[in-house]
User: Fold this.
Amino acid sequence: MLNEMSEQVETRIERKERTRRALVEGTLTLAAERGFAALSLREIARSAGIVPTAFYRHFESLDELGTTLVDEGVRQMRLALRELRRTPDARLSETVRFTFAQVAGREDLYSFLIRERHGGSSALREAIAFEMQLITRELVVDLSRIPLLDTWPTDDLELAADLIVSTVVDHIAEFVSAPLRERPAIVERTIGQVRMVALGMASWHPRATH
Amino acid sequence: MLNEMSEQVETRIERKERTRRALVEGTLTLAAERGFAALSLREIARSAGIVPTAFYRHFESLDELGTTLVDEGVRQMRLALRELRRTPDARLSETVRFTFAQVAGREDLYSFLIRERHGGSSALREAIAFEMQLITRELVVDLSRIPLLDTWPTDDLELAADLIVSTVVDHIAEFVSAPLRERPAIVERTIGQVRMVALGMASWHPRATH
DNA sequence: TGTACATCAGTGAACGCGCGTTCACTGATGTAC
DNA sequence: TGTACATCAGTGAACGCGCGTTCACTGATGTAC
Assistant:
């Protein structure tokens, strides 16, 4: 009867998923302090309210948890970027603003990615580098659709895309750890810099295509 | 007599300094693997060939060693930049090439700085951020001496300087962990991007100075 | 130059602690009939 | 619907290990006379 009156009763699967979320979220919180490499299985379990040995019901090892965190972060980024690409003729400043708005919801996740991008194990670093390469490649495709740029060789498009992506990522790193009142300035600076790059592209003389 | 024939006999001070160097270099090597936060005092001592307790003859704590490493790295960078500023009218490509040449000698040091820039304790992060701000400010001064830019407001100069510094730093991060054969391509890409930024600056309309 | 004493980098035993991992277990949830 | 059994998330004791730090020490180097 209680079962019918309310949705309070969780299935075993829902319970397990909730604990798994607690492990993931707890790890993100802890990793924000000292970095993932400095965390212990026992404190992660503690942060999720379970006994150390129960950790193994969810992940085979700390490494597997690390990989999961990268995958989650990356998935989040992909979703954000898909949203972004839906309005391809948006103004440059809108695009940048939208990007930071996405980041603002998930500081923990993005600061994890920023941290582990250079700081993590080689497995994590490679996974993140690979994803950033995909993002750059997508931007190359987007840029190649712009009338002025459609005659550029791929190398030059990649040069520009890489510059834009790394500029934005660099400011995301600042953004996630900045106090709220400094954030608008960071966004505006990013917009200014991307605009400067866009001006540079406008007077760039692309190499002849081979 | 042996004393007069050779320089093999070290003073106590020289011996101590040699052990200290061994601690610093050993830590850089170990930190390249897993990051500074994941290292233990005992393995650092082991890497320097001393017993754990002897560590305290050189540093009060791991934190103090970390701070020392940042200071060393930063000192190295300052020396490199001072060299760079001696030839202020060098071509842009020469300047970038020179920067990477400096980095090439000390991969361990620079990869430590790159890692701890976002990955370390907040003390290390702040120390590195502070130094990078100084570097940006010096570039602002250099830029303000260029005829075309001498009427720009400081904000715009900072925008450009920040963009250039972060682009170069970003590629230094790639450079230090890249295999030797990929390095020239990274340097060329950096030159291309800085050139693109320079073009952007050339057609930038600075805001009126207040 | 020789001697007696001070300095101090490095030693090694010892400590209590948190670690990752094993194992047999419990008891609530889920399933088959 | 009720019962008997299976599943499995979480428990708790136990292990051996490397950790940071204390302490009293050693013996080579340095210094004062």
User: Anything to note?
Assistant: Chain B touches chain A through 33 residues (CB under 8 Å). The two ends of chain B are 75 Å apart (CA to CA).
